[in-house]
Structures are given as structure tokens and as C-alpha cells.
Specification:
- Strands 13, 14, 15, 16, 17, 18, 19 and 20 form an 8-stranded mixed sheet that branches.
- The longest helix is centred in the middle third of the chain and has 40 residues, at 406-445.
- Among the domains are: 73-250, no CATH class; 463-653, no CATH class.
- It is an alpha+beta fold.
- The radius of gyration is 34 Å and the shape is elongated.
- The protein has 23 helices and 22 strands.
- α9 runs parallel beside α12 (365-391), α9 runs parallel beside α19 and α19 runs parallel beside α22.
């Protein structure tokens, strides 16, 4: 132990003397380990951390499915049948999400996301209220369900986190509800849910629409039951249900997805790719540090031989190098953890809200231990070769061992191989970054089909207790639009059930005249949206032919519809839809006449191909939930107070939703691609820098080893350009070999990225030519600098250099 402590002191003393070397090594490791730790923190939180529920591996999400859609909601009757007949499931619970209007307490009306759940959902998840109690079985009944559980956010926002919230009365859609409990802050089963109440199927609705109430179904597998067993049993029950007359028209299939898989599926591919890229950068850093240590070990051969001659054993010599490597790695790892904290702050700025859950951007104890393990592992990785060389000190010969001899030659080959590996590993994220950045540029230039500039959108939620009949809905919505149109700076305003990139799309099967209802089951669903007059003008959606929807398209007027180009091409062979008859199965039994064909709009995402879409007149198909779109020259912050006043003038209980500029909505839709491209660019830049430094170190060391040779060449008449070509050629050969190897890895990465690309081929020629060219420039610069320094040494000094 005393000898070990002495070696630690000697190593620290040497690190203090060689500040430049220590700084470069620690900085290299810190950057790589910091990036690795930050990315793996997110990966662990999103991909590997178990869900915060009791035995989460047994939880599954259940869907009904059809030939048109693999994942559909579950009807109440189907849920009941699964509960009674599927033995592989220990428990099956349902929930549904609605928007409701919260009023009372003198506060402004507020739109709240309301979850309605069967009584056993919370207990199945193992979630207990942090305050109060959960629902009782007796409260899951009509007339007894006016109780609510507050989400932590609403509890803080509405009641300031006070325990006195228990027993308070809230007006939800005009009906009083009693607060019986508060859910913990960690409960995020359904994002952005403000409060929960019991799920009750209204008896009248159940009698007339027994299969139409769609729920989100969650089940718990019995202990030891395989997923396939439960799936087969569910399919058997679904087949029997399909024979029941009451289930006619329902989706006959079943889908079963583990809950954890469902939670992470949107981020899985991107995060694993980032994990692989950051691991490559860590390997580049290790190779870089190994190169530096090998060069340093070669320079210390005389010292090692002296120590061996004085009686130092092989293990003692090797241990000295390993101790120095471990200290450097720990210093780099510690600094890297500080950089990881800064990196997580950077990720918070780079990642748009909603792309990843907020809790994923923090360091976990598991990740800290992993970072420590990475530091120690890297110390062994890049310190092992110098240690082994020191252990063979007796084989180096006498004290006058030739620096240009066999040993140096072997070291030079190893260092050259490490540089080739660095260049190859750096090329992979560079190609990925290039492809993602070209994708981002293509997305920015993609035709949207609408004009988002100067357009503001906000939700409109009519309180359900006041607007049960369609006539009242139409009057209130029409009054709101007319009032908003009179605001200063507003050029137009309109309503729609949803707007581009807003979400909440409705879908319906389509029937053409003369077709049987069964034909709808084999045809792709169409997206529908309800719109008011002026919507096309407000959003800048142009018509290909026909007319837009107008105020005179009322309930007593002929039933009409506007379709988009994709719908016309898909459902009519010649693409001539104008004047044709179309029926949407969700719209009742009547056909509608196509009075206009609109140009395609990117409703789902900027990079998604337009879908078949139809527009219904609001006066013929009104809804409680709409989106108000306003084209105005007034800035958002100045327009919001005026909008709030107009909402109150129409109905004091009408809440103003969160207003957003449509340009910001478009920008947010590009968030995942921008984040992926930005992170790849950062990691690629780090890898490129490390590869350049490694190449510079190899060439510089080679020049120092060949100082006498270069002096002889210059003394014999070699020109500066000839010497430059000799030295730069060495770096170029190493870079070329690295590029050749790296292109294989880049091709594999490009194939993995193909599903995320838009407007650019996975094997884009420009990217695969530009990136190696960039690496070539860095290689030439890294080789040219030490060559220029060698030319500044007078030949007389070079000839006196020791051999």
C-alpha cells in the first residue's frame, strides 16, 4: 500500500509538471464522457427505467383493430367481455379523455383535460392519492359520479397546494363536483390530465349506441402468463363477439402492446441511434488519448530502462503507467460529469417541449455509476498498451536503445492504426449529421399547402351543459367569429375542428353511390374536419376547382363537402370529384355533394405525405370543440387580452385556450428532426476535432522521430515542397484508409436513418462526397502544421539530432 501511494504521488507530480499534456488528455476525456453521460441519462430515463407502477412488466395496452387501422379504441361491451372471459388477464380497466370547462371560485373559466377511469385503474397501477382517497366502487354509477381527483398541477395552480382543497366543490361543465383526493406529482399515466373522475356509461347512450363508446383499455397479465397466450385468448373472444348482432360494425381484431413498449416507441429509434453515435465519439476519444499516451511512453523509454536497471520489476513498471492512466481517466470523468450537467441544460434548450418527458433530462445515480465505470474502463483501455510496453522494459536493450529501432517502429504502427480508427469512427456521425441537416433544410422548403405567417390559433371549448343542441352551438360559434373579425388588425377569422399540425384529426370510412356498406371496410379511411366559412381564406388554402364552404351551407341547405386533391385521386379514377356524391359513415345515411376540391395541405406533419381529407361545413356538422384561427397584424401578446374579452362577451363561462402563432406550431413540428440533426452535428463536430487532433499528434510525433532523416534530405537538396509532400502524404494515407473503413459504418447508419429522412436519399451522393472531403481538409491541415514546423529547423541542427 505505501508503494502504491507513492506511485500516486509521483503520478500527480508528473501530471502537474506536464500541464499541457494533462490538460489535453483530461479535456478530451471530459468532452467524450460528458456527452456520453448526458445522452445515456436520457436513454436510461426514457428507454430503460421501469415505469413507476407496481410490476410494470405485466401491464399491457389493448386495442380493437381493423384492416384499415391497427389500433382503435375499445367499446364498453368489448371491455366487459374481456373482463369476464379472458383468463390470461388478471384485470382490465378502461379510461377516456375529454376536455371540460372548469368554472367557479371566482376564477377565470379554464379548459381542463379530464380523465374518466374505471374504479380499479389506480389500484391496478399501484398508485395511491397523496392526499385524500381514490374513487369507491359505489361512485362508478350514474348520478353518483360527481367526485374528482385533482392532478398535482391543477392542485397547485387552483388551490396553491393547500390541503383544504379536499371537500371543495368545482363546477365542471356547469355541474358541481367534490374534490375527494389529490394524485401525486409522479403520476403521469396520461400526459397533461388535470383531473380524474369515475367513468360511467350513461344508460341512455348504452341503450342506443352499445358499441360506440371507445375507451383506452389497460390490462394486467396474470403472473407467468406469456404475451402470446393472452393475445390468442383475446382473439378467440373477439371472434365470438363478432358473431353478436349488437357488435355489428365494430372492429373485429385485437392488438396487445406492452405498456412500456408503447411509452417508448416514439423515441426508441432516435435514442438508440444517438447512443451508438455517442459511443463512437467515446471510442474516438479513447483512441486519441491512447495515441497521446503511446507517444509519451515512447519518449519515456530511457526512464523506464533506467528504472528497470535499478531493479524495478515488470509489475511495478506496468502499475506506474496504469496508475497515471487511472488518475487521468478519473480527472476526465469527474470533469465530464460537470459537463454532463451543462449538457443536460443544453438539451433542455435544444429539445422542444413535449418531445421528451421533463423527468428524462436529469442525471440518475445509475448513470453516475455508469460514468464512473466508463472512466475506469477507459483508463484500462488506453493505459494497457503503454503498461505492457513498460513491463517489457528488459527487452528494450541497453540504456542507449535506439529511438528509431524496432520498438519505435511497432509503436508507430499501432498509433497509425489508432488514427485510422479515429478517422473511420468520426466519419460515421458526420455522415449522419449531414443527412439530418439536409433533411431539415428540405422540410423547411417543403410546400405546406397553407400560409402560417400572421396566423394565430387557439382552442374553443363550449361548455357541454349549455350547448347540448346543435342550434345553440352554431349561434355561439358564429357570434364568436363575428366578434373576433371586428378586432383592430384582424383581416379574417374562422373556426375548424382542427388546423394543420394541431392534431386531433377525425377519421371516417367512405362510401360512393351504389356501394354496399361492406365496401367501406376495405377502403382507406379519410380524415375529416369541420370548418366555418372563411377558413380557406384565413389559412391561405387555395382551391383547385369549385367553391369553398360558405355561411349559407346550413342544416336546411343541400349537404355539401369539399375534398382535397389526394381524396379526389384516390376515390375517382379520373380525379374529377367535383359534383360527385360521397358518404362518410360517421355522418349518417345521407350523401354529400362535392362542391370544391382544395389543394393538399400538410396536416399530420411537414414530412408526411398528404392524406385523403374532407371538409364539412360547421353549420351542418357543429362540434363543442373547435379551433379559432385569426389572421392579424397584431402581435400575439397584444391580441390575447382582446380575444379573452370577446370570449367573455359571447359566454362568461367560455375559456380561452392557449393561443399560439401558427408559425410556432410549424416550427415545433420540426422539433424532433432539428434535435436529432443538432445533436448529431455536435457529436460529429466533437468526433472530427478529436480525429484531427489525433492525426496531428501522429504526424507531429513522426516528424520528431524523423528529424535527422528530414535534415539529411534537405542537406542533399530536397525542396520544401518535396518535404511537405512527404510528411503530408503520410497523414493523407492514414486519413484515406480511415475514410475507406468509415464509409462502411456510414452506410449502415444511413440505412438506419432512412425512416427519418425527407427529401434526401439515405445514400445521398452530395453528403457522401462532402463529408470525406471535409475530413480530407482536416487531415491535410493536421499534417501540414507539423511539416511546416519541421521545415523551420535548420539542416545543421537536424543533423545533430540524436538517434
Amino acid at each position: 500500500m505505501p508503494s502504491f501511494l507513492q506511485e500516486v504521488r509521483l503520478s500527480l507530480r508528473r501530471m502537474s509538471r506536464e500541464r499541457a499534456f494533462t490538460t489535453v488528455v483530461v479535456a478530451t476525456l471530459a468532452l467524450a464522457i460528458g456527452a456520453t453521460t448526458a445522452v445515456f441519462s436520457v436513454v436510461y430515463q426514457v428507454m430503460l427505467r421501469p415505469l413507476p407502477y407496481t410490476e410494470p412488466e405485466q401491464l399491457v395496452r389493448l386495442y380493437q383493430s381493423s384492416a384499415q387501422r391497427e389500433r382503435l379504441g375499445v367499446s364498453h361491451l368489448t371491455l366487459q367481455a374481456w373482463r369476464e372471459h379472458v383468463r390470461a388477464l388478471q384485470q382490465v380497466e378502461g379510461l377516456a379523455l375529454w376536455d371540460r370547462t372548469l368554472t367557479g371560485d371566482g376564477a377565470a373559466p379554464e379548459r381542463v383535460r379530464t380523465g374518466r377511469a374505471t374504479a380499479g385503474l389506480l389500484s391496478m397501477l399501484g398508485v395511491q392519492p397523496s392526499l385524500g382517497r381514490a374513487f369507491g366502487q359505489e361512485e362508478v354509477a350514474a348520478g353518483q359520479d360527481d367526485v374528482v381527483l385533482l392532478g398535482h398541477g391543477l392542485w397547485q395552480r387552483r388551490f396553491g397546494g393547500r390541503p383544504e382543497a379536499l371537500g371543495q366543490s368545482l363546477m365542471l361543465d356547469g355541474r358541481p363536483h367534490t374534490v375527494v383526493g389529490v394524485l401525486p406529482a409522479s403520476f403521469r399515466f396520461a400526459p397533461d390530465v388535470d383531473l380524474w373522475k369515475p367513468l360511467v356509461l350513461e344508460p341512455v347512450w348504452e341503450a342506443h349506441h352499445p358499441g360506440d363508446v371507445t375507451l383506452r383499455a389497460i390490462g394486467r397479465l396474470r403472473t407467468g402468463t406469456p404475451l402470446d397466450t393472452a393475445r390468442k385468448e383475446l382473439e378467440g373472444v373477439a371472434a365470438r363477439l363478432a358473431q353478436e348482432p349488437v357488435m355489428a360494425g365494430q372492429a373485429p381484431g385485437v392488438r396487445l402492446v406492452p405498456l412500456h413498449e408503447l411509452v417508448v416507441e416514439g423515441a426508441r429509434e432516435r435514442l438508440w441511434l444517438l447512443s451508438g453515435i455517442v459511443a463512437l465519439v467515446l471510442l474516438v476519444a479513447c483512441a486519441n488519448v491512447a495515441n497521446l499516451l503511446l507517444a509519451r511512453a515512447s519518449a519515456r523509454e530511457r526512464e523506464v530502462c533506467v528504472r528497470a536497471a535499478l531493479g524495478a520489476g515488470r509489475w511495478q513498471l506496468a502499475r506506474q503507467f496504469l496508475v497515471e492512466s487511472a488518475l487521468l481517466a478519473l480527472a476526465g470523468g469527474g470533469t465530464g460529469l460537470l459537463l454532463a450537467l451543462w449538457g443536460l441544460d443544453l438539451l433542455r434548450l435544444l429539445i422542444p417541449q413535449g418531445v421528451l418527458p421533463p423527468e428524462s433530462l436529469r442525471l440518475e445515480p445509475h448513470v453516475l455509476f455508469i460514468a464512473l465505470g466508463v472512466s475506469l474502463s477507459t483508463s484500462l483501455l488506453f493505459g494497457l498498451v503503454p503498461a505492457l510496453r513498460a513491463a517489457r522494459a528488459e527487452a528494450l536493450g541497453a540504456l542507449g536503445v535506439a529511438r528509431g529501432g524496432q520498438s519505435a517502429t511497432g509503436t508507430g504502427r499501432l498509433r497509425a492504426l489508432l488514427v485510422v480508427a479515429q478517422v473511420a469512427l468520426a466519419l460515421v456521425p458526420l455522415v449522419g449529421a449531414g443527412l439530418m441537416l439536409r433533411t431539415l433544410r428540405a422540410l423547411h422548403e417543403a410546400p405546406l399547402g397553407f400560409e402560417p405567417h400572421d396566423v394565430i390559433a387557439t382552442d374553443v371549448l363550449l361548455p357541454g351543459n349549455k350547448y347540448e343542441d346543435d342550434a345553440r352551438k352554431r349561434l355561439a360559434l358564429a357570434a364568436l367569429v363575428e366578434d373576433v373579425r371586428t378586432l383592430p388588425g384582424v383581416s379574417s377569422a374562422a373556426l375548424a375542428s382542427t388546423v394543420p399540425l394541431w392534431g386531433r384529426n377525425g377519421v371516417s370510412a367512405v362510401l360512393l353511390p351504389g356501394e354496399s356498406p361492406a365496401a367501406a371496410d376495405t377502403r382507406e379511411l379519410a380524415t375529416f374536419r369541420t370548418v366555418s366559412a372563411g377558413l380557406f381564406e384565413t389559412l391561405g388554402i387555395s382551391l383547385k376547382e369549385g367553391r369553398t364552404l360558405v355561411d349559407t351551407d346550413t342544416g336546411s341547405a343541400p349537404r355539401v363537402i369539399v375534398v382535397n386533391e389526394t381524396f379526389a385521386r384516390r376515390h375517382f379514377p379520373d380525379g374529377q370529384a367535383l359534383g360527385k356524391q360521397v358518404k362518410l359513415t360517421m355522418d349518417g345515411e345521407d350523401f354529400r355533394e362535392v362542391v370544391g376540391v382544395a389543394h393538399d395541405v400538410r396536416h399530420g406533419s411537414v414530412g408526411e405525405a398528404p392524406q385523403a381529407e374532407v371538409y364539412l361545413p360547421m353549420n351542418q356538422f357543429p362540434a363543442l370543440y373547435m379551433v379559432l384561427v385569426v389572421r392579424s397584424s397584431t402581435p400575439l401578446d397584444a391580441l390575447v387580452p382582446a380575444l379573452r374579452e370577446r370570449f367573455r362577451a359571447v359566454d362568461p363561462d367560455l375559456p380561452l385556450g392557449a393561443a399560439r402563432a401558427l408559425e410556432d406550431v410549424v416550427d415545433a413540428s420540426l422539433g424532433p428532426t432539428r434535435v436529432m440533426g443538432g445533436l448529431l452535428a455536435l457529436l460529429a463536430g466533437l468526433g472530427l476535432s478529436l480525429a484531427g487532433v489525433g492525426l496531428y499528434g501522429v504526424v507531429a510525433y513522426s516528424v520528431s522521430q524523423r528529424t535527422r532523416e528530414l535534415g539529411i534530405r534537405m542537406a542533399l537538396g530536397a525542396t520544401d515542397s518535396q518535404v511537405l509532400r512527404l510528411v503530408v502524404g503520410q497523414g493523407a494515407r492514414l486519413a484515406t484508409a480511415g475514410v475507406a473503413v468509415g464509409l462502411v459504418g456510414a452506410a449502415l447508419l444511413a440505412r438506419s436513418l432512412s425512416g427519418m429522412l425527407y427529401g434526401v436519399h439515405a445514400f445521398d451522393v452530395a453528403t457522401f462526397l462532402t463529408v470525406p472531403g471535409l475530413l480530407g481538409v482536416v487531415a491535410l491541415l493536421a499534417s501540414w502544421l507539423p511539416a511546416r514546423r519541421a521545415l523551420q529547423i535548420p539542416p545543421s541542427e537536424a543533423l545533430r539530432s540524436e538517434q
